[in-house]
Amino acid sequence: MQKKKKLVTGSAMAFLFLMGIVSLFSDMTHEGARSIIGVYLTLAGASAAAIGFVSGLGEFLGYSLRLVSGFFADKTKKYWPMTIVGYVIDVMAIPALALVPQGGWKWACALMLIERIGKAIKKPAKDTLLSFAASQEGAGKSFALQELLDQIGAFLGPVILFLVLYLNKTADTYRKYALCFAILGIPAIITVVLLLIARRKYPNPEAFEPETEEKTYFHFRHEFIVYIVAISFFALGFIDFPIITMHTAKLELVQDDVLPLLYAGAMAVDAVAALIFGWLYDRIGVKSLMLSTAISALFPLFIFGWGGQSKAALFIGIVLWGVGMGAQESTLKAAVCTFVPKQWRSSGFGVFETAFGVFWFLGSWLTGVLYDQALTGMIIFSILAQVVSIVFLGFCHHMHQKTIAQKKD
């Protein structure tokens, strides 16, 4: 029996690692594109208003549709087909941007929306497949591994495109950006090939997680509902990095060409934080989320309050921001595995990601408005929202402990 358990655990970890490599090449494609898409759309003829509208609409579709795709995945149990279809649409829309003619910004914007829709189709089903294997290894550690590999890809993608642009300095500007998207077709194809290999090697990841005696009709536990409220406040108050880079550039604390390095540094902290807090989640549960949120909550004060006075304060704030990002990418997903039963896991991820995305969008908009009107108000709003999140996480932890005690009785 012990030998069989070790084999299952080893197989689950191999599956998680393989899917992590899939995410690495996928993020290489996405983040590479993200680093140049704004410039490319401008060169293609899009106005700032058009870019802003399409970006906002893309994020809205990318998150809101997960509610539908998650519920559909649970009803049909077609986790692999939805993951594969979503990935193909998602990553292949990016190299297709290389085919957009100069002046064809509407086609480019359409491809951006298609890419977001593909991500919405795949995400709940993919996270559910991972959650089945995570039941063997620990949800926190498993999603932390995914985040670490994600960030390696997120770092490599922009670096590769930087080299492409550097080596093609004399080429026509529009053509060299189109070349970048064409080159991103390589990691996009590798992503799909590896995904198909994973599907063939692990056709039934559901077998990793034992069946539980849960009610068969659709329902969520009360602690999950409280948890959704908590992560919604977290997303509402967590300031997006573009506002940080805009503020830093405005104050001229660092040179413009150093700004990408600030983001790279934040991503490095993100990866380390994901591993640490993923490990902690498997030991202390929701308390690890309360701890990470408490650590990161003060980043606006350092970046926007004291950051204008010293580089040291700015760098400390960016480290705290990275901690918050890393923890939310690993442990927030791990918590869904804890609170949502196996048969409704995709719906749980769909609700979680939709709520997170909608409130992230609202928070980005509100903090942007507050930045222009009252910087101190933005700092207070951000910190207060994260403190409220900690309070609800505390309620969630108490409710979950109570549920565990009732089951033991």
Q: What structural category arises from helix and sheet content?
A: mainly alpha
Query: What is the CATH first-level class name of the largest domain?
Result: Mainly Alpha
Using the coordinates shown, work out and report the CATH topology of the largest domain. Answer: Growth Hormone, Chain: A
Order of helices and strands: HHHHHHHHHHHHHHHH
Radius of gyration: 21 Å
CATH level-two architecture of the largest domain: Up-down Bundle
How many DSSP helices?
16
The domain count comes to 2
Through-space gap between termini: 28 Å
CATH superfamily of the largest domain: MFS general substrate transporter like domains
**What sort of overall outline do the alpha carbons produce when their principal axes are compared?**
globular
Number of strands: 0
> DSSP strand (E) fraction?
under 5%
Helix content: over 70%
Oligomer: single chain
Main sheet record = none
Name a few traits of the molecule.
82% helix, 2 domains, disordered N terminus, mainly alpha, Growth Hormone, Chain: A, 409 residues
